[in-house]
Amino acid sequence: MKDQLTKALVCQGRVRLYIVRTTDLVSEARDRFDCMPCASAALGRTLSVASIMGSMLKSEQEMLTVAINGHGPIGSVIVDAYADGNVCGFVSDPHVDTVVDNGHLNVGAVVGTNGTLTVIKNLHMQDNFTGTVELQTGEIGEDFAYYFTLSEQIPTAVDVGVRVEPDGQIGSAGALILQVLPDATEQDISICEHVLEGLKPMSLLMKEYDDSTLEQLVKDMFEDAKILSTQPVRYFCPCTKERMAQALEAVTDKELQEMIEKDHGAHVTCNFCNERYSFTEQELKEILERKNGKRS
Question: What is the DSSP letter of 147?
């Protein structure tokens, strides 16, 4: 089954449920950056949760950026998410050494806990939203739950998982977010806790429901689930050669001149998708002329 995101209301409409399958998009991220297992898991978990968070935005023009830096060996984890649930992102060191604890990847050990998780929402308003919390475990899921509860003041449960196969490929990936609405009762909370306690690991759930829709998974979790929508999601970066040309306009005249005279061209790589764009000597001259024209 292709990657998809399902939104639903459960507990008589008093609890919001989001669930996303991200196996393909995490696989693409892994391939684009040649990620080692812990890097795949850290980036994949962040991409999965960010996909849901992007889908919570109210307008197609809005987007958000998640930045995690626990001062661990992996460096930063940066992900951009859009209102359609599409995401892209990278880690500072995709080749970070793999750390295994009791047979499981120790993501917290490479992410670190001496740092923060920051969410920046670009709402196309004068004042955009920024929320920052201290990292709790570096395992990503618990850190996002803490962010929602503290920064957005919404009681939230987050479950996320990425299965990395022995050969380094992505076997399955996905995430779930449950948010308790203001009119939820103690019984609603108890029901949600019971469901979450009985759930298999998210990566295993995604594997078991690979031939089914996420709507079926939601209905198996909550008998009264009301499906609101299901949409495809994918790894998507909005970079283009034109955007990279605009970025080159920010380079100093001296540096551009050196690219023209010494290198006779330039190569620019996008951080978010690792796509490489080449510029000829003539194209660089045009960029320099355009840049100088804007100043005159």
Answer: H
